[in-house]
Structure formats: C-alpha cells, structure tokens
Amino acid sequence: MKKSPTENSGTASLLRAVAIVALWTLASACNPAQAQSTPAVKGDYVGTLAGALGLKLHITAAPDGTLSGSLDSPNQGAYGIPCADFRIEGQSLSFAVPAVGGKWTGTIGKGGDSLEGTWTQGQPMPLVFTRDSFVPAKTPSPVDGIWLGTSQVQGQSLRTQFVVKSDDKGQEFCSVDSPDLDLFDLPCANVTWADRELSFDVPVAQGRWSGKLSGDGNSLAGTWTSASGPPTALNLARQSQRVLPGAPAPATFDPAIDPVPVAGLEAVLRKDLQKSFGSGMLKPGSPVGIAIGVLRNGERRVFTFGAAKSDSLFEIGSVTKTFTGLLLAQMIGQKQVREDTPVRELLPKGTVVKPAGAEITLLDLVTQHSGLPRLPDNMRPGDPNNPYADYRTADLYQFIGRHGVQKPGKPEFLYSNLGLGFLGQALANRADTSYPELLKRVVLEPLELRDTTIALTAEQQRRFIAGYSAALQPAHAWDLDALAGAGAIRSTAGDMLEYLEANLHPRALSAAFARSHELRADVGPGTRIAYAWLCNTASGDYWHNGATGGYSSYALFSPQGEYAVIVLVNVTISSRGSFADRLGEHISQRLSGKPAVSLENW
Predict the structure, then answer these.
(1) Distance (Å, whole) CA 468 – CA 570
(2) Parent domain of 122
(3) In a domain? residue 246
C-alpha cells in the first residue's frame, strides 16, 4: 500500500503496481495503427476514472488516417504514456495502453466531441472522455503564464508552480503544481483577476492564494492561506518553461564483491551509503530512519541508520498481505475454509447475489486474480492523510453488493488492496471475530511475534517512529478498518526477521507456511505468485514490498540462498521509487556476491 486515494487516488490501479508504486513513463510516442478513414477524433480529451483520477488523452492522425496517441495522468505525475493499436469501426473506437496492461473500448459521440466507453484493467470501469474545448485568448492576459516560487514549510524549502491561462471569453483558469511533493495539475477554483490582483482557491489543499502582479509583469507577490496553518508569504517569478516530473534515473550497479557475511554487512553498507550520509537522505539533521534485519544460515543481525532504533516500530504496508496469505493457509489446514470456497459464502446473508457464472474464490483473492479493482470506488476519506480509517465493513459490503463477485472469464494478475482487504474481512467473518484478533490468535501468537500488531500499546506507541512524505514532511500514520488485511500491520525489524526466518525454517505453522509458498499463478515474465508472496522464478527468491503515507518496506527470503532481508524506512516512496526496495535489492546482491544496484543517488 502507499499514497492515499491521494497513490493517491482510489483508482491508482491505472498506473501502479505492487506496493503503491507509480508508473513514471515519459515516452512521447506510441505505436501507430491504421484507421479505416481520417477520423474526427484527433485532438485532446479529458476524462475522470471512478470520479477521482484525472486523465488526458492526446490523439493525433497522420494524413493517411493512421492514429497514434498518448495518455497523461497528471495527478500521479505520469505524462506521455504510449497508446497503441487504435481501431475504428464505424462509430466504435478502441485503443490499448500496453505499459499498464489496460484497454479502452467505446463509441465516438457528438461528432468526436465525446468518447464514451469502458476502461479495462481487470475489472471494467466507465471512462468517458470529452474534447478539451478550451480556446485560448488571442491575446493572453498580463497574468497568463508559468509562475514558480519557494516557501518554507516546517524547515523545508518547497517549490510551488502556478500555470495561469485565459480563454477567448476573458475567463482565467489555473492549476497548481508542487514538484517537490510529486503533485501536479491540482485544479483551482474561484479564479479572480482584476486590477492586477489574482486570487484562487485550491480545494484539494484546502487553501487559497492571493497576490498582485508587479509593474513589469514578471513577478507575483502574494500569500498562501490554508486551514492547516498561519498565512505564509508565497512570491513567484515568471518562468519560460514548466517544471515537470522527471523519469527516475536508470539504475547503475556497483561492481560485485565476494559474498558479504552477515557480520560484515553493516560496514559494507556504510561505505555504499557514503553519499547518502553526506548529502542524501541520511545527512545530518535528517529525520530519516532505517532499520535492517538480515540472516543467513542461522546467523542474524539487526542494525539501524539515522533516526531509527533497533526496537523502532514501522508501518509495513502491503507486506501485511503475506500475513493474510498465511492466515488463509492455516485456516485451510484447520478445515475452516477451502481454496475454492466462494468468498460470497463468508459474507453476511444477502450481501451479494450468486453470479450466473464462475465466482471469486479465496484463492483468487490471495493470488491477485479476482478481477477486483485496486480500491473500491466508494472510498470517500474524511481525512486524505489517513485515507482508509473511515472505510468500514458496511462500505465494503455496499461496494461488493453493487459490484458483484463474478470472476472474469480469463482473470489476470491485477494488484488489489481491495482484494486482500476483502479476504481478511471474509476470513474474520468465518471465525466470528475481527481481523486483528484473528491474526493475533492464529498467526502472531504461535510465532511469538510480540512486536507485530495492528493496535499499538502505549509502550509500543512510544517506539513508533514518526513517518514522513517523500519531501520529508511529517505524514499521518494510516489506520485501516475493513481493509486491514491489505496493509494495517506495524512491526520491528527484529520481529520481521523472526517472521522471515519462520518462512525459511518454521517451528510452528509449518504446513501453513508450506502451502503459502506454493506458486499458484503467473504475474508477468519471470514472476509468479503464491499466497500473496511474489516469486522471482530465476532465483527462487520470495518477496513483497509495501508503502503507506509515511513508510516503506521490503521483505525477501531466499530458500536457495538460505538468507532473508527486511528493510523498514520511515519515508514513503517518491517519483524515484522506493528507497526500501532499492536498499533491499542491494543487500540481497551483496549477500550473493552479485553486482549491486547503486545507492549513490539516495
């Protein structure tokens, strides 16, 4: 899990894979396909997926009628995602977005002014595009343009960017970007421009900016006001180019060295992280804390960098899903459920009707092949910084009742927080208890994981390290209710290392661990899935990662290499990716004597 219906909208499934990781693609071309005739659909279109994720579709047509195009998801900072295989048959139109395994199919309406259809990336969802009808003013107003400024927020310098434009009727429009927080195209409202004074609201940030244009037209002096703090000066200068999200730098690799023994790993990492200690995430004064656990052939170490302590608790995010998978495996062994049990049978009577065809089973849910979307479309968080907290079982049942539990004809892998959260709730129903209590009784107590929990004691709360956004701003902890099985667990590096060692050499729940490691379905080239665990088929390594609003995690165990790694970081992922992922991969490569992905830019 990661960024809220914020990453992080509830429809982040369009552009994210495991953990909550955004797809940052800046390719500007797409594979063209031949249309039957010169279409009326070329141009720019805007649409909204599930009421939350804004999209922009750009379609171009060659003289011979060949269509090509690209898709933008400004909310997630993804631009120029290539489209392919455009097809027109009469008024029907379809195209694919290979990078995310999605397809749009629909009809051309109103002479090309609307495209009404369905987005399919697992479960189909309505997606209507309308032609971007904005007609720019022939003569731009004095305030039109790109503006960039910097403000101090809790000791951090954050850039803010305004894009202001006027239409042919003289109406001003604007959008706001926060490049350092990976937020782009936040819509403005109530834009007012008169007597060289500009003001507007930014509803999603619950704020308002107002200020005045300088005499030379090259600066805006103003104030940002929000509900979360006192008014702040925010002055901006005119820019010739807009700051846009950048693609993450391609990974580079440090040369291989002899396999590092567990006892020597901390010293090797200190050298490999030298730049990070000087000017990166671990520089003096940084709030970042990292806890690492590693074991091999019975030898184990837990050590920390930065603000973390060896007993600090972190949110582990989607690594929780592997616990839910183990819970399912144990309940199967106890004859409480079966792999092929329809999830409908574990719901309150009357929640959802039995479908005419095949229906979603518990195995479908745990292997991410249920066809359910990443998140339900009825999430309306009261606090976007804690987006799952008020999503209750009644909301879950309302969504399932409306959506149904029919399984797609050819279900494919579709990462779904909803699916694993739904599984956790269904298992709790069967046991007539709550998910936290079931997890504690069936998994945590037999494994003696005393610092792995959902609800913290007062003593654990004191050890719960504060989380931070990608821009190192304080982040709210996440509390999950109905979807707890997808990402609610908090833990320490020591406890997580115990858990990984139990996966390698179980002393309890041995049959459940064995079942939970059985590879049951394909994910993509070189990857299969067991009970939530993902497996690299070349190396035989099992792994899962996770992220919430202020934390990230990476867990791996290698039956062939006889080692395990846990990395816990009190910072969420960013446009560069996940530091926890990168560090976990680096450690695995150091343990196995392979070239190691570089940590230089962190």
Answers:
(1) 6
(2) 25-131
(3) no
